[in-house]
Design a protein that fits this description.
- By secondary structure, the chain is of the alpha/beta class.
- Helices cover 38% and strands 17% of the residues.
- The chain is built from 9 helices and 10 strands.
- It has a 5-stranded mixed β-sheet. A 5-stranded mixed β-sheet has the order 8-7-6-9-10, sandwiched between helices.
- The longest helix is centred in the C-terminal third of the chain and has 24 residues, at 254-277.
Length: 344
Amino acid sequence: MTLTVRTPASWVVVGLDNGGTCNNATVLDATGRYLVDRLVENPSRVLEGPAVAVESLAEAFENILELTSTPRTLVRAVGLDTPGPASADGVISSKGSTNFSAPEWFGFDIRTALETRIGLPVVYHNDANAAALYAHHAHFGEDAAVRSSVAAIVGTGLGGGVVEQGRVISGVAGMAGELGHVQIPLHGLLEDDQPVPRCNCGFLGDVESIASLTGIANNLLPYWLTRFPDHELAAQPVARAAKLLRGYGERGDPLARAVFGQQAQAIGRLFTIAANFTDPAAYFLGGGVVEAEPAFRQWFLTTVQEHTQLRLEQARAAAFALVPDLDMAGARGAAVAALSSVAA
């Protein structure tokens, strides 16, 4: 499919989504139009250290302006998202992270570094928060500023975001919306002989220990293979088997559906907790399940909804939906954050 490119009708903001392999860029003008309708990527080069990675982000910024014929003078702000953990101001964790594993990244202020490099205000969110923000605004449109939502983004870990009145709740240390590390009740979710899942963060029975690729590899799949010892995935290394599992789930494989069923139940219990804290107008689900075959992702979302215990009044008022345009959601959410900062 061809890339549709529009020219700006007014001043603009730019959204930059930084990942382990690529940066994705977009432009959002003041009328609310995205000027590109597909991924526009360049290598992120994060493994080469902060200096190279920031330069690559600057290249992504210049490239998207050139592609959309946008004069730099029209750009009011830039939104940036990266994988976490990081502070609300874009300072990478002092322990680094999966994508920022080199010591030079520990405690690195990527937001300020990019702001200094391009000479424009930069607004920061982590990637899950940015995706949650885009889902919120795409779903509610003109009503986004008076609505609330919660999003769970299932990937290698489990990210999330809490949006209130159209804005991401960041918290004092930038750690709000770390939904993966909310501990959930396990009674009735695990089999009687199933070990309590352990998260890489050290918690027992948090959502990420179940609803994530890491949770599949470390906890769920090793157990379920003991229940299906003749399954062909038993011949694979567990890390590879975990990555292959979604394909089996799409085909209705009993082992895969047992694993993903537990994941969906775990997210439903997370959303039940959220319902009693924020009572959101929408619950969004993103990540690998969104990229799956339509019947499978609908089954997963329906299972999440069935295991979210809402009061009758809540069930009548709240929506359940998938995060749209997932590969572009980070950059678009970053752009929304930048637009909000200019309009504030």
